[in-house]
Structures are given as structure tokens and as C-alpha cells.
Write a structure and sequence with these properties.
CATH architecture of the largest domain: 3-Layer(aba) Sandwich
Helix content: 25-40%
Shape: globular
Number of helices: 10
CATH class of the largest domain: Alpha Beta
Low-confidence stretches: none
Distance between the termini: 40 Å
Number of strands: 13
Largest sheet: 7 strands, parallel
Order of helices and strands: EHEEHEHHEHEEHEEEHEEHEHH
CATH superfamily of the largest domain: NAD(P)-binding Rossmann-like Domain
CATH topology of the largest domain: Rossmann fold
Length: about 300
């Protein structure tokens, strides 16, 4: 099939591109490419089509969408912290952009769109782990916008026949993770340690997250390529909660060098505990096993050290 990956040169998107190419699909990557070349896909330079464009430009999207069978939408312009005090940026950036994209994909007769939603923000506070049947209660503008996009996907399915899959993803970590910015605690902590800076911990040390190895995310989201006509909603998380205290201990076991950390008040945009039940998705993929933090933190540490070499 012809597969369009919007934001395909980014962190999550590039791992999906790896999977789609390995499965034999013809992949088009739509991204800004601000440096004139790919950051994460140089190893696939001869095997993918790169299209440079702005997500807000409908004409650029139309050119990229022409002749595509399925589209993955990885472009996100905000973060939970960024939009907490400015909810309008969710509407102007993510929601408006998603609606324009769904119009373009429908006009181009694309069969299916796949959307990475946020398992960490759409559910709010519930008994853990949470399954897809739990009523979402997002409390941040970021989570509200993610859930609204899910509802618009269903609207477009009914109105235009555009199928969709939604994956509510836990906290991703692993190679290609951004090392600065408001999201991605594993990468940011590792960069702080390499720079000799104290690791910043928000909230008390009991805050719990469901950490998912990014290559597992790519493999699992590639499931949507099996049936371009079906629509569904899946959690994508390990079902294992890791507290900040446990994560700090795993860092000590992985890095083997002293580092300091500072405790700051919990951000109001953050949930205290997020653990996802992905039984539904795993039932479609017998034999799949999630990688653990203990297995993959060393690989992530080696990757980030390599990126820091001159």
C-alpha cells in the first residue's frame, strides 16, 4: 500500500516509517525538514519519498495525500504544559489542523487515517490500569483536544467513509527521543546527566507512569496496515506502572555515575497516576511482548551518549 506519514521524520513517526518500509509498503514522509534533510531517516533515504511542507498549508497536504491509501498523523504542535495556560493554541494548532487534514484526506479518497492519542491525558483520574471502556475525563486542554480529535475522526467516518484507528499511548522513551522540551522525561533526564545538571522531578516521588519503548509503539501501530477499511480504538501501554522513585533507581543501575535531582511541585497539567490496559490490542497480536525499562534504558543511554559526541 501507499502510506503517508505526517510528521514521519519525528520521534514516533520515524519508528512507524521503519516498520512500514520493513513490511514492504511504499512510504511518503511529510515533514518540515527545516535543515533541508532528514534527522531520523537517513538510513532510508533511498527507500522513502520525502515531501517538505507546512502542516497548516492545505495545498501542501493535498500534494502529499494524492494517491495514498492510509495516512498516519503524528504532527502535534503543543504539549500539556504549553497549553495549560493558553488553551487557544490547542484549537488554533492541533484541532484546526486536524480538521483541515481530515477534509484533505477525505477529498483525496484516502481509505484510513491513524491517530496517536494520549493515554496519559484523555482518561483523567481513574482506578488503574484503565481500559478503553472507561469514560474519558481529560482535565487539561491538551487532553481535551486529543479527545475532541477522536470524536471528529468518528464524525468523518460517518460523513465521508474515512476509516480510522486511534492509539492512546503511554509515555514513550527510546532512541530519537527529543532531549529538550516539555515532554519525554527519560531523554531529558539523560541529557541533564550528560550536561552535569540536576534532574528535575515534578511532584513527589510517587507519581506513576506507563513507559513504553518507542520501537514497540512503531510495531504495534503498524497493525493498522493490516486492514485499511476497519476503524477501532486501542490503548497502547505496558500495563506496568513505574513511579518516579523506581525510575530514579533504574537510572542509577543503568548509568553508573552519580547525579543529583531536584524536586519541584507537581504541575497542574499532570495526572498523578497513568497505567494503561492494552489487552484489546495485544489480543490482535498473539505472542507480542513489551520491552521493559530495565531492558531498554541501557540502549537509550548509549544512543543519547552517541548523539552527544562531537
Amino acid at each position: 500500500m501507499n502510506v503517508l506519514v505526517l510528521g514521519g521524520d519525528g520521534y514516533l513517526g520515524s519508528h512507524l516509517v521503519d516498520e512500514a518500509v520493513a513490511l514492504g509498503h511504499q512510504v511518503t514522509v511529510f515533514d518540515r525538514f527545516p535543515y533541508g534533510t532528514s534527522r531520523n531517516l537517513e538510513h532510508l533515504r533511498e527507500r522513502v519519498r520525502l515531501v517538505s511542507g507546512e502542516f497548516v498549508n492545505a495545498d501542501s497536504l493535498r500534494r502529499a495525500a494524492e494517491g495514498q491509501d492510509i495516512a498516519y498523523h503524528f504532527i502535534c504542535m503543543t504539549s500539556p504544559a504549553a497549553s495549560w495556560n493558553d488553551p487557544y493554541i490547542e484549537v488554533e494548532g492541533n484541532l484546526r489542523g486536524a480538521l483541515q487534514l481530515l477534509e484533505v484526506l477525505s477529498e483525496a479518497k484516502v481509505r484510513k487515517v491513524v491517530f496517536p492519542s494520549s493515554g496519559g491525558t484523555v482518561y483523567g483520574t481513574h482506578i488503574q490500569p484503565v481500559g478503553e471502556q472507561i469514560l474519558p475525563k481529560p482535565s487539561s486542554p491538551y487532553g481535551i483536544a486529543k479527545l475532541a480529535t477522536e470524536h471528529f475522526l468518528e464524525y468523518y467516518r460517518q460523513r465521508t467513509g474515512l476509516a480510522y484507528d486511534v492509539y492512546r499511548i503511554g509515555n514513550a522513551y527510546g532512541p530519537r527521543q527529543p532531549l529538550v522540551g516539555p515532554q519525554g522525561v527519560v531523554g531529558m533526564w539523560m541529557q541533564c546527566i550528560l550536561d552535569g545538571r540536576a534532574v528535575t522531578v515534578y511532584g513527589d516521588q510517587s507519581v506513576v507512569r506507563d513507559y513504553v519503548y518507542v520501537k514497540d509503539i512503531g510495531r504495534l501501530m503498524a497493525y493498522s496496515l493490516r486492514d485499511p477499511e476497519a476503524s477501532d480504538l486501542f490503548n497502547l501501554g505496558t500495563g506496568i506502572g513505574t513511579s518516579v522513585l523506581e525510575l530514579l533507581e533504574l537510572f542509577k543501575q543503568t548509568i553508573h555515575q552519580p547525579f543529583e535531582y531536584q524536586l519541584l511541585p507537581r504541575r497542574t497539567c499532570d495526572n498523578v497516576c497513568v497505567v494503561l490496559d492494552s489487552t484489546k490490542l495485544l489480543a490482535r497480536l498473539p505472542g507480542f511482548r513489551y520491552a521493559t525499562l530495565a531492558e531498554k534504558l541501557p540502549e537509550t543511554w548509549d544512543y543519547i551518549k552517541q548523539r552527544n559526541r562531537p
